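Appendix B. One record, verbatim.
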Amino acid sequence: MNTQGLTNRSILVTGGAGFIGGHLGRTLAKDTEVAVLDNFSTGDPANVPNQARSITKDVRERDIISNPDTDADVIFHQAGLVSVSQSIETPYESHTVNATGTLNVLDAARRNDSRVIVASSAAIYGGPDYLPIDEDHPFDPASPYGLDKLTADYYTRMYSNLYGLESVCLRYFNVFGPGQTGGDYAGVIPIFIKQALSGEDITVHGSGEQTRDFVYVDDVIQANIAAAQTQHVGEAYNIGTGESTSVRELAEMIQDLTDTSSDIVHTESREGDIDHSIADISKAEDHLDYQPKFSLKDGISRTIDWWKENMKV
């Protein structure tokens, strides 16, 4: 990944002990001065690279605005509550982390004249009116998480318009990869992998015909690094692959790649889920020179290998 344009710049990664933030911090710390801000409520300290400076703070804390630790040339804002189902259970917490937390980060960036790259989400679109989903698609979030991310997305672009802040929103589709672990609120891929490697039933919510655009984490890191260097600021970009896969097909792929004896079983549909999703990534291709490099099968294989090496299942 080309980090040459960031070599002499100071970097802050919020949520840098989390899944995507950890990958981002490790990649950037090879060539740049990196600080990681995380409250470590869910993040793993092992995700913070040894050469990075660690700041134990919560993005909801208002004093991050005036804290000299947050003074950086570029801020990658990855901190957030990332679960649709958890946001339905605890909407206030979701709002304070995802919306208010982002506002605090934007104010810190404005104070320090930083460029800020904000992790948004395809959840802001809700059930699509058409496919593939481009950045001009109407917004109709179906969960508190989607609404919170939409609020953060609007604020980020508004700060660019009102204050001249160099900001970019990246609307992630379904990100997966090594380091994303299974749990009550994890993505479907680590849950399926954990079930397959444990010999448990692979549980598919609903019919399994629902489709998603699954994007490997290294491609998401590529998009972030490009956004930190682009001239096309004040914009939002879809970050996916432009390809869709059904959840049933995904389960069958993991079943095959793990050579498991697990059966695929269907359970009730989840509240807040949409039926179909696929990204139009042409804007990111044009403005960020973004080109996904990993196929779903390759990414799944790499993720399974990580699970076998690092997780007891």
